[in-house]
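Hi Prof. W.,

I finally got the ABC transporter ATP-binding protein prediction working! I wasn't sure whether to trim anything, so I left the full sequence exactly as given:
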Amino acid sequence: MNYFKKILRFARPYRLFAYLNILSNIFYALFSTLAMISLFPMLAVLFKQTEPVYQKPIWKGLSQAKDYLMEYLNYFVTVKSEDAGEGNALLLMVILVITMFFLKNVFGYLAMYFITFLRNGVLKDLRNALYKKTVELPISYYSEKRKGDTIARITSDVLEIQHSFLSILELIVREPLTILFTILAMVSISPKLTLFVFIFLPLSGFLISLIGKSLKRKSDKVQKEQGQFLSILEETLGGLRVIKAFNAESRFTSIFQASTKRFYTFSNSLLNRQNLASPTSEFFGIAAIGVILWYGGQMVLVEQSLQPELFITYMGLAYQILTPAKAISKASYGVKKGNAAAERVLEILETENPISEIENPIEKTYFENSITLQNISFKYENEYVLKNFNLKVPKGSTIALVGQSGSGKSTIANLVTRFYDVNEGEIAIDNVNIKQLSKKSLRGLLGLVTQDSILFNDTVKNNIGLGKGNASEVEIMEAAKIANAHDFIMQLPKGYETNIGDSGNKLSGGQKQRLSIARAVLKNPPIMILDEATSALDTESERLVQDALEKMMKNRTSIVIAHRLSTIQNANNIVVLNKGEIVEQGTHEELLSKKGAYKKLVDMQSLA
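And this is what came out:
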């Protein structure tokens, strides 16, 4: 139930609907019982079991409520029969029955009406909280997790919580109160018969509970496997070109089918166990009804200690207990399934973000002097990628980082943007440790253009305006012109309003990259980080993109991670890395004259 309590905090904004639901359920339970009790006077009139009573009875307290109601019924029927005949008395009894059932259903509807707002509100807020947490968690979190598993938690697991946990809110008041009121009515009719009935309840309850013991474990398997095949689907859609190019369709189809087969097996096991609950509880309920018929029949026919019409009403009440009892037993299975879903959802919500902010962080909106990386060391897992690394980037300068793959170039970009935190040392902007800055203000100072042009399934205009929500059309166009993107944008079917498709797949690689540059230009940050921004392009696209980059870097501080050395010859300082350490640095001419590591890299690319 700990998971249930944690999920319930999302219901607080909707507590008014919860209170109205509880109130409606109280009346529903009351009128459910009264509806069955109202059958008795109708049967008494129908079977002519009333006795003439001419004096109105006097109320003598709850202890004698049953006798009072019996006498009042006899008095009412006697008066009405003499005034308008027995048919009129019977009509009034029928109207009473219909009224009770009508009120029962009105309050039943109101209870469901109010709970709808609560359930859907919690569903909305839970999904919003999960999404917010998803975008807040660091990139390192998703290097260890499958995307499909996260999608499964936000979709199917949250729905499972709605169907299982939140259905309990309907049952907490309505079903127990219905059972309580019904039992009170049964006791008032015949304490002896009611005692006999409840000898069988603990036995049937114990047998029913045995069914639900393994439901949480089985449900957990189903939900995990769903995350697995969603991950396979997500990877398939992302890598469809490669799959087709390597004729790997059958391999991925086999992997997907193996996962759905496991899901099929786990789901069958779970649902068959769950489906056993309803018929089992109904069987035991009918068995109890059968025993009541036998024992109660003895009291009516042999002992004659119970009136026939009271016995029929009693049987109706006894049968009425079955519905809430079945609902409660079904809800207990729902809790076990919901526990597994809630555990998976709360695992994300309660994950601590290692990239945390200090209390009252500094909001820095300007850049004055320099970026300093002082004695920093960093590792993703066991081995250090950077070791005692030192670098100073003065304002207005362009610093290029070069080296072989795995030398730590992109890691520096990840650390400056604080996608990861350093293990040792510090990174400072204007002598302020970036850990003391708010993440929003830090990233507000930075512009990022990566090798992979990450665009979204939206218009050209909205993709460029991502970092500046209030940008005008003129500003967007100016940014596109600086990025050498305006001309090709105007040739698109709807210009800036053209949707570029999933990940911008309607555009070429060079066009996507120029949109990424336009996005960074529009943001207009004082510090620009370019992570191999031209390495994936053909010669023509590279020329256009390089020209755009040079325009963008004017009067800015830039950290350029370069694969193609021809693009960074004009950098103020070129830093050559090898296995996380600086092996040499200087201008293009200075490094060539040293005939060291940089000269070797240049020669290798010249030969290529």
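Residues 357 and 435 are 7 Å apart (CA to CA). Does that look reasonable to you?

Thanks,
D.
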